[in-house]
Specification:
about 170 residues, alpha+beta, 4 helices, 7 strands, about 25% strand, globular
Length: about 170
């Protein structure tokens, strides 16, 4: 099977699954435990319907109440958004000072830095038209940008894998 055939099959699997995806089902507690092995993981936000015209749904896993350790996954699906996801993906870049392009995940990806600022986290545009944003808090004062990128990219790849499986 050629690389193109594998990509096409994966894209078809994702396309057949689009619409109604619940972000909390794209990662599980075990995935979050992989980032925070000693964390007491709780889902504190689970949006199953788009919360706004952009079609964004979020899941928030808290790993520590006192130390800003968390994972937030936001997704927007072309079928549920009133604004095209590729436009959202490109538009959001203009609000980030030092955009870092990230290879090896999705059709295109960039990192907007760590923290709670606008545009933070890893932004991924998948070939199927799904926009993914993953933001990880590694603890108060943790500014290890490489660790943030590594962690967010690994989680993004897991999200894409689960989308392709139809999770």
């Amino acid at each position: 099977m050629t690389r193109f055939s594998k990509m096409l099959i994966g894209t078809i699997a994702v396309l057949s699954y689009l619409g109604g995806t619940e972000p909390c089902k794209l990662l599980d507690i075990g995935d979050i435990k992989g980032v925070f092995p000693s964390g007491d993981i709780k889902i504190t936000m689970n949006e199953t319907k788009p919360a706004n015209p952009l079609g964004i749904k979020r899941c928030f896993w808290e790993a520590s109440e006192n130390d800003m350790k968390f994972v937030q996954l936001s997704i927007a699906e072309e079928s549920e958004a009133k604004v095209k996801t590729d436009y959202q993906f490109d538009n959001n870049k203009q609000y980030i000072e030092n955009v870092q392009y990230i290879a090896g995940v999705g059709k295109s990806a960039y990192y907007g830095g760590s923290g709670l600022k606008m545009g933070a986290g890893l932004h991924v545009l998948h070939e199927s038209g799904v926009w993914i944003n993953i933001t990880v808090g590694l603890g108060i004062g943790n500014k290890d940008e490489n660790k943030h990128i590594e962690t967010e990219k690994a989680l993004a790849l897991k999200v894409i894998e689960n989308m392709q499986k139809g999770q």
